[in-house]
Amino acid sequence: MLHGKRKITPYLYLAPCLLFLLFFVYYPIVENIRYSFFDFSAFSPSKTFVGLQNFIDLLHDKVFYIALKNNILYAVISVVCQVFGGLILAAILEAPITRLLSGFFRTVFFLPVVISITVIALLFTFIYDPQIGILNNFLSLIGLEDWTRAWLGESETAIFAVIAVSQWQSIGYIMMLFIVAIQGIPKELYEAADIDGAGGIRKFLNITVPQVKEMIFVTTLITLTGAFTVFNEPYILTGGGPGNSSDVLGTLLYHSAFFEDKMGYASTIATVILILTLMISVIQMKLFRTGKDG
Amino acid sequence: MKKLFTVFTIFVLCMSVLVGCSSSTSSSGDGKVIQLNFFHRWPTQPKKAFFEKAVKEFEKQHPNIKIKTEAVLNDSYKEKIRVVLGSSNPPDIFFSWSGEFAYNFARAGKALDLTDMIKEDKEWSDQIIQSQFIPFTLDGKTYGVPWSMDGKSFFYNKKIFKQLNLEEPKTWTEFMDDLQIIKDANITPIAFGSKAPWTISHYIGTLNQRLVPEDVIKIDYDPKNPEGDFSNPGYVEALKKFKELEPYFNKGVNAVDHEYARQLFKSGKAAICYMQYAEIGMVEPTLKDDLGVFKLPAIEGAKGDPNVITGAPEGIMISSKTKHPKEAMEFIKFLTSKEKGIQQVKEVNEYSATKGTLTDQNSSPLQQKAVDQIVNANRTALWLDTDLDINIVDAYLKGAQLMLDGKRTPEEVMKEVQKAAKEVKQSSAK
């Protein structure tokens, strides 16, 4: 009796959460995939089944490739800056020399994470402003007038200016995760290395990096999926402009759905994003073989 | 970054609502008190307060009607109104721009035909400037009541013009000479911001009207007429003229928006700004007597109509699904009454489309002159971004943004526009 009861109780506790997940996460995903085979607008009373036509259109859409390229740029730069940069920052802050000030710097680096992205984006529109922005003023102050430009207003620089904002904001978060991981490394390892006469860089490469491997996996996954689902930063900073030069898949989806009123097409973009992020996680799981001790 | 997921979820949920609940029940209650939903685009002050006050007054006069207001700003409104009108529970009364934006609702059967109700109450409807009904009228049926009207002109700083001994330019050549003189004096000639690219559409809309014959435009702009293919050389010419202005804009136009441009002009740092008459109220208190207005100068040898001004009424429509068309119309009549119109000009700086609402008490001479210009113009050309199909607008604006960035030539932009137009016209012919 008691045994049977115990078996059902945990599931009862899980049920509410599971239901919410089903309704708010899995149901929309499944519905979205279904929608991507239809052509319809918010107005149209009925949906027309078009099969794979939306996907074919997407593959012929020049803007899709611009957006995809921007997402890939986002991903590459984010991994380099956030995962590697974050790891190095964390290692420096955890090093014995900087211990004293690490609390202060941790706060400094983490602060951007807790500020709303909308606020940050608006703040950076001021920083990037071509005439009154501090970035251009700073550049002219140190004699680099030739470098001043309308950062968000030119096709070549717009996407990089947007990516830079994301790096500035997110590096603190990744750094924090690494600090936690580094603090979990047994002290004995470092002590043994000290006795063997290993230097700081050696210790970092041979102890810290292998020990936080699992965390590197997690953070890479976070930044990569983040890079493919990014929306706020480009939407607020440039709106995808000039032209489509700083569009990412997220802004393209939004534009198709709520501006051009092509709901089916937007669903298709969403499905493609889903496939991309799924692929990334599968590849990474294979590469890092998590869960198993390698 | 995770916000995309939220957007995505909301989007799918919206869709499920649209598809799932096609047979919902009405919320009229027990018949005594009628609730009307009113959806407009002014969640900011002072207009928000203006509408709140209007609703309260109306409810006092009509104790059996309750009005529930919802408001979202400009660009979001354009997106949201399309979604809610497609849902099973659309707002009874909603705000709309005129032209293609409104026709779209009419064609989809989302807007109620108001023709008979307007004809029935001549006493009220005759008070409204009749020409402002035109952009809400499709195939002889009127779907909206104009609430405000507006036009676009070059505003200029008289002080700067006087310093440099300049006159209001009459022709395009004079205009270009003046701009060069202002630039040589180290003053920004024209304040402009195109980060939100609708500002581009206002320039191009007017230039198109000037450079392309009227009948050609009519065919091209009509989303259902497959003969209009935007091939008239005037369109390229219009973009070229716009590009001629580019050296005289402030730096980095694609990175700043219109509010920034207005600020630049208002603070006297720029000599000229292309603005809407409704904005007079925003800059006149600062610039005072230094504020002047001139029309887009005549372009030599242009084939279009030189006496057209760009501008359009904005108005109010009723949903075709409303249960209470009479009561909804009552509210519209209340909002467009002469008494409300006078308050409207004074409190929110929007020119009412109702006759005789501009008095010396509530407006400046410049504002009165501006309204005269609207009323007396041969024709008003609508805002390009609400007059054309959204996909053509998109091709136009994205292309022009890149043109300002030096990445596209006017010919390339028009090629994209022609392609978009072809697709739109093909799909609507189906």
From TrEMBL, chain A:
Q: Which Pfam family, any one of them, does this sequence belong to? A: BPD_transp_1
The membrane spanning regions, by residue number, are 12-30, 72-92, 104-128, 158-182, 212-231, 263-283
Q: How does it sit in the membrane?
A: Multi-pass membrane protein
Q: Which domain of life is it from?
A: Bacteria
Describe the location of the ABC transmembrane type-1 domain by residue ranges: 68-284
Q: Which InterPro entries match?
A: ABC_transporter_permease (IPR051393), MetI-like (IPR000515), MetI-like_sf (IPR035906)
What's an example GO BP annotation here?
transmembrane transport
The family note in this entry says: Belongs to the binding-protein-dependent transport system permease family.
Name of this chain's protein: ABC transporter permease
The record lists the organism as Heyndrickxia camelliae
UniProtKB/TrEMBL annotation, chain B:
User: Which controlled-vocabulary keywords does the entry list?
Assistant: Signal, Transport
Record's Gene3D superfamilies? Periplasmic binding protein-like II (3.40.190.10)
- Family from the record: Belongs to the bacterial solute-binding protein 1 family.
Q: Which Pfam families has this protein been placed in? A: SBP_bac_1
Which sequence ranges are marked TM in the entry?
Answer: none
Hey, what's the signal peptide range on this chain? Answer: 1-28
Q: What is this protein called?
A: Sugar ABC transporter substrate-binding protein
